[in-house]
Amino acid sequence: MLLGASPAVAAQNATTVLRIETQLARASLTRVERRDPYKLFHKMDRAGVDRLTPHFTWGPFLKQMKLSGANSFNVTDPKFYAALDKLLAAISLQDLKAYLRWHSMHAASPYLASRFEDERFAFFDKTLRGVPQQKPRWKRCVQQVDALLGEALGQEFVARTFGPELKAATLFMTRQIEQAMHEDIEALPWMSSATKQQALAKLAAVVNKIGYPERWRDYSSVAIGRDDYFGNALRAIEFESRRQLNEIDKPLDRLEWQMTPQTVNAYYDPQLNDINFPAGVLQPPLYDPLMDDAPNYGNTGGTIGHELTHGFDDQGRKFDAAGNLKDWWNNQDANEFGERTQCIVDRYAQYVVVDDIHINSRLTLGEDVADLGGLILAHMAWRAQAARNVPASRDDLTPEQRFFVGYAQWACENQRPENLRLRAKIDEHSPGRYRVNGLVANMPDFAKAFACPVNAPLVKQTPCRVW
Ligand SMILES: [Zn+2]
User: Fold this and answer.
1) Which end of the chain has the smaller Cβ count within 10 Å, N or C?
2) Among the options 151, 336, 371, 400, which is catalytic?
3) How far apart are the first and last CA of the chain?
4) Do 435 and 411 touch, CB atoms closer than 8 A?
């Protein structure tokens, strides 16, 4: 209706859009299926993709995208493209137009007049996630600059917040945690020495990216005007899209970051075999140079251990030291791994997110494995650190207790039930509550630190442990 359609036509178009989206969603791999990288790997040439979708001619499309020479494709989800082709053969031109019009408006809505942005907010935030009101305009503007010109903002952020001492301290902690994983792998009772050698080689090849990229993205070709918000956004989106397409047929860029320096998050990239900690996640109240080691090792150490463990979770373990999808496990070791992850799948499936909705623990498996392995590694590193730098005693909590409290504090959060329901379907992370309580229940060191009785709710008689 905001585009001028009558209520009747708008309602009809909305039905069409929902019908098409539902058809496409049903033809897609589920989120759990997508966790298996082999299910997403279908290499095809031009003739192959043409055969897959006879009703979509790739030639003109690729030409328009300035990719006429492209001849090597990974079709992540062939079943989806087959369904799309069937749909294209059956759909009316009018319905297709309604569908594409909706998508272009949806994509453009954050940059259009308030009535468009408000309408987007009303469904995607208010209805789906229970958010009562939009963030103030300045916050939305900062978010847009982060999304569209993130590394330009990042240079300023790093200059103000991330000095060489902070980088050195967090890199040191990262190396201690890698050392802990080295010792952990060597001591694993269930893995053969041949697979251990492979695991250690992969660990040794992990690249540590701390704070910010070595080479900054150059936005000088993006024209920015004070009086053209929509145009600015469009040009920045086009720039990023072109930047990515330009990497086709070039050697892999191992310096690339997927997050901006000001992001409060971290990640492991299985295809680069690197762990990435933006400067934003190495700031108070997470990492605080003014605090002592115990909470910092529990909190940031836990995050570092988490990302490192992703290289060895149900998904990451399928990639080798160079980031290739290549099996380096023998069957026996893979089965032993599977038995241990099953313990986590079964345990987390019992936890209730909201109402009667349980954690989909096949979806959250990689994150749950990384949480547990991560904190175990951080704890090993913290022990080593406490031996070097004996913690001062305080009368409220022991250093061991402060390590766990430090870990728990990253997950101080409050979520509306709508958001919990949505995330239970789509988020690969368990809710914060179980990322803390569900995790420490599997750590005998936690029970010891707080002198928990054996039947305490946060003590499991048979702890799960993978790494
Ligand atoms: Zn993770």
Assistant:
1) N
2) 371
3) 55
4) yes
Give per-residue pLDDT as tens, 322-340.
Answer: 999 999 999 999 999 999 9
**Count of Cβ atoms closer than 10 Å to residue 34 Cβ:** 16
Instruction: Give dist(CA 358, CA 345) in Å, integer.
Output: 12
340 neighbors 333 (Cβ within 8 angstroms): no
CA 364–ligand 1 middle distance (angstroms):
9
Give, in degrees to the nearest 5, the angle at Cα 223 between 222 and 225.
140
Within 8 A by CB and 6+ apart from 96, the residues are 88
Distances (CA, A) of 462 to 58, 96, 182, 360: 55, 56, 25, 22
Question: In whole angstroms, what is the distance from residue 439 CA to residue 311 CA?
Answer: 19
Peptide bond into 295 cis (omega under 30): no
CA of 268 to the centre of ligand 1 (A): 7
- Cα(42) to ligand 1 centroid in Å equals 26
Active site residue 186: no
Alpha-carbon distances of 290 from 166, 286, 400, 457, rounded to whole Å: 11, 11, 18, 33
Quote the CA–CA distance of 383 and 390 in Å, as a whole number.
10
Read off φ and ψ for residue 207, nearest 5 degrees.
Answer: -95, 130
Number of H helices, E strands in the chain: 19, 7
| CA of residue 389 to ligand 1 center, whole Å | 29
Q: How many CA atoms lie within 13 A of 424 on its CB side?
A: 20
Rounded Cα distance between 98 and 291, Å, is: 56
- Tens digit of pLDDT for each residue in 110-161? 999 999 999 999 999 999 999 999 999 999 999 999 999 999 999 999 999 9
- 0.85 surpassed by pTM: yes
Helix (H) or strand (E) holding 425: helix 417-426
- Note if 253 is an active site residue: no
Task: Please tell me which residue in 95, 184, 307, 333 is annotated as part of the active site.
Answer: 307
Residues written for the chain? 467
